[in-house]
Specification:
Largest sheet: 8 strands, parallel
Radius of gyration: 18 Å
Number of domains: 1
CATH class: Alpha Beta
Strand order of the largest sheet: 3-4-5-6-7-8-9-10
EC number: 1.1.1.-
Order of helices and strands: EEEHHEHEHEHHEHEHEHHHEHH
CATH superfamily: NADP-dependent oxidoreductase domain
Keywords: Oxidoreductase
Shape: globular
GO molecular function: oxidoreductase activity
Pfam families: Aldo_ket_red
Structural class: alpha/beta
Number of strands: 10
Distance between the termini: 31 Å
Enzyme class: oxidoreductase
């Protein structure tokens, strides 16, 4: 396992880490037994960082992490998120009283004394412009409830705004072969400031596995069904903002990247890891097989300069015109 600095937090995290949205809920049927086995295997293989949120399965993902990391609290770092259990547009959601309560609830579910990284969960940009929530997070840090804090953002504009606040130690962003724009300005700025970068949706909700056809369907309780066009939250969180048929078509044009790299999923994640600003990728999983396959991304060969240029042109010419939900 390779490890990278998480910005200036002092944490060293596995470059392939894991998100827990899929084992918490909203990705179709999942079994706790499989999720726990996957978490155990990841830890055995050297993964020391997991991302979750209080709304993943209404806290269920946090509870699963508590079981999987019991007795390893000092070795396994956990990042969780808050605000979406309330009204994200209401300033009261970001008040000292409410944020403290959200943190206490997460701590109870995680069975921990402090949260390693506490992230605002994709708040509206007006909340970030106001900035009051950062003073609240500074207070929680001073009280010892959280050790570091960051923001999960939807757009580059939001990310750049967050970098103006000195207490923000990490940004969680959507960055993959279908969402390359952050590499132009946001990632270099974050790296220069020593701000950690967590990359979510590295496989664009599975599109970049190359396993889907235009006739593929998803269960009713899978966000790839109920949020395919942004019906429930930002459409960028589902298929990187691409209409599903177009995404399948574009993925078929990327089959060449898997040559010598095992498969398209590993190659897609390798491309992300080839950016030095990235602290870690946090793919999701439902079982041990997916954990094993995702971990292999750190072992495959990097992309050449010529390949990177080819992929950049592919994004600007063929992908970018179809992205919805902002970048």
């Amino acid at each position: 396992m390779n490890y990278r600095k998480l910005g200036n937090t002092g944490l060293s995290v596995s470059e392939v880490s894991f998100g827990t949205w899929a084992i918490g809920g909203d990705w179709g049927t999942s079994r706790d037994e499989d999720g726990l086995k996957g978490l155990s295997l990841a830890i055995e293989q050297g993964v020391n960082f997991f991302d979750t949120a209080d709304v993943y399965g209404s806290g269920h993902a946090e509870e699963l992490l508590a079981k999987a990391t019991k007795g390893k609290e000092d070795q396994i770092h956990i990042a969780t998120k808050f605000c979406r259990a309330g009204d994200i547009h209401d300033p009261e959601t970001y008040s000292k009283h409410m944020v403290s309560e959200y943190a206490e609830q997460s701590l109870r579910r995680l069975q921990r004394e402090a949260i390693d990284l506490y992230q605002i969960h994709c708040p509206p940009i007006e909340i970030l412009r106001d900035g009051s929530v950062f003073a609240v997070l500074d207070q929680l840090k001073a009280e010892g409830k959280i050790r570091n804090y960051g923001v999960s953002v939807e757009t580059i504009e939001e990310g750049l705004l967050c970098l103006e606040y000195p207490g923000v130690e990490s940004l969680q962003v959507i960055f993959n072969l279908f969402r390359q724009q952050p590499a132009l300005e946001l990632l270099p700025r974050a790296e220069a400031q020593g701000t950690g970068i967590l990359v979510r949706l590295p496989l664009a909700s599975g599109l970049l596995t190359g396993k889907f056809g235009k006739d593929s369907t998803f269960q009713p309780n899978d966000h790839r069904n109920f949020n395919a066009n942004g019906e429930q939250f930002n459409v960028g969180e589902t298929f990187a903002g691409l209409p599903f048929p177009k995404g399948v078509e574009l993925a078929s044009q990327l089959e060449w990247i898997s040559e010598g790299r095992g498969n398209m999923a590993r190659a897609s994640m390798r491309w992300i890891l080839d950016h030095s600003a990235v602290s870690c990728i946090i793919p999701g999983f439902k079982n041990e097989a997916q954990v094993t396959d995702n971990l292999a991304a750190g072992e495959v060969s990097s992309f050449t300069a010529e390949e990177m240029q080819r992929l950049s042109r592919f994004y600007s010419d063929d992908v970018a015109p179809h992205i919805r939900g902002g970048v």
